[in-house]
Amino acid sequence: MSKKNQEQIDRLADAARRGGLSRRDFMHYSVAAGLTATTATGLWTTKAAAQPKSGGNFRWGLHDGNTSDTHDPGTYVTRQNIFLAHTHRSYLTMIMGDGSLGPDLADSWEANEDATQWIFELNQDASFHSGKPVTADDVIASLNHHRGDDTTSAAKALLTDVSDITKDGDHTVVVTLSRGNADLPWLMTDYHFAVCPANDDGTIEWQSGDGSGPYKIDSGEWGVQFTLSRHDGWHREGAYFDTVELLTLNDPNARQTALVTGDVDAVSLIELKTMALLQRDPNLVIHNVPSAAAITMPMFCDQAPFDNVDVRNALKLAMNRDEIIEKITFGAATKANDFHHSPAQPYYPEGIPQRDYDPDQARSLLKKAGAEGLTISLSAADSVYTGAVDMAVLYAEQARAAGINVNVVREPNDGYYSDVWLKKPFCLVSWGARPTPDVMYTLAYKDDAAWNESHWQNERFNELLLAAKSELDNSLRAEMYAEMAMLARDDGGTIIPFFNNFVYANRANVGTPEELAASWENDGARAASRWWFND
């Protein structure tokens, strides 16, 4: 079969999967492309089975939610916040199943030559659940919610280079920057930048939960459950379910039991130690998706004993990452090297020596720092990551060989990100995947970032971060990220054991696309709008 015919058949198969062809037309064009009738029938059966169907109530169990969560996009932090936002609100752009950047509220975007100005053309059919059309004013107000001296948004650092946001008519938004940013359209996928209705004074009305996403909120209680129904004005493909229920199930046993018994149709996280057992259940489908998500262990660099770089590096050397990946993730992870740049992201710096387990060198560094017999506390909760507490206990055992006493503190699941993260000096944290290293470093490692979880300050790192952001020469940009990685590895205050795969599951009667986005669990947090029931 010629390459041209194969490409034609691939396009036909994709059209069948998406429901764009009838069986009659599919058979006709497939035979014309060179397939036998028997082969074409088999291909139709396979692809049409994956064709989205409308209807049903989708029950979705989430592993991370707090009673203190709110609808304010600037305060989003838990999976409950993030998954709900991707279900009931819209963004300018979205990450597609194949990892590419696609449209959401913006139909198209383009930059000037030095990427200091970006123009976004909005979809003119988009509307809020309240019935109000989405206009440039709403986008401008929503982005400005994260800007300015008075903002309390955690995403403020991502927009520091934005000097002005204006409109050119009701459906054109112009973003002007003080320095070029080639990643700006990708930046717009950050989960904080949900678009809300604008008030007359230029603020946003976030309190009601109004949005322009595929589903509208009918009722809900933070940390418990939200019920939603399809938004008839949704401006993109998908939204196949009639209704959606998002249930917060922080307890891993309760969440997994609900999936096995059929009380929920999908969950955002499964217990890795039971992954092999669940894979044998014909009623379940397990997804194991490599990603740029990470588990971090930030240490407050401005607080003893972590203010000493030798102590920080001793704690990094006291970790046996291979054992942790084997026993905690069951191989569903990529070993990290104490810089927050995944092989799944562009510009990954190859060739940096891997930091391995070396308790003798760790003990030597502690002696140099005058910190022999070091005792520290490490906070963890299983809502952070399945097996997070077990991982902390295993690390404590490994560190003991270096003369380090790690007291593992099991924190409550509820309220972990409001009461522990950014408040206690050494803890476990789960980071979702970011599309580019610039976004990740700007959010959590820039000197003035609200989420600089280790309080790390490194002048050279911040110089490189700003320079790389506006560098349009890819080879020079890669060199900058390599130097930044070395600085974070050898001076930074964050231990990064691994980049975790997204391991989640659904009932077998739930249909999913062939490609699942790796930006968040459950198809980039968009299972409600991209998945469907097969029967």
Structure, explained:
The protein is of the alpha+beta class. It contains 18 helices and 21 strands. The chain has helices at residues 3-17, 23-32, 37-48, 79-88, 136-144, 184-187, 252-261, 275-279, 309-317, 321-327, 359-369, 388-400, 416-419, 437-444, 459-470, 474-491, 521-525, 527-530, and strands at residues 57-62, 93-95, 101-103, 106-111, 117-122, 162-167, 172-177, 215-221, 225-230, 243-248, 266-267, 284-289, 294-298, 333-335, 375-380, 405-410, 429-431, 494-500, 502-507, 510-511, 532-533. The strands form 6 sheets. It has a 7-stranded mixed beta sheet with strand order 8-9-10-1-11-19-12, with helices on both faces. A 4-stranded antiparallel beta sheet has the order 4-5-7-6, with helices on one face. Helix 12 links the parallel strand 15 (375-380) and strand 16. Helix 1 runs parallel beside helix 3, helix 2 crosses helix 3 and helix 9 (309-317) packs antiparallel against helix 11 (359-369). It starts with a helix and ends with a strand. The model has no long low-confidence stretch (mean pLDDT 92).
In short:
The chain has 535 residues and is α+β, with helices and mostly antiparallel strands.
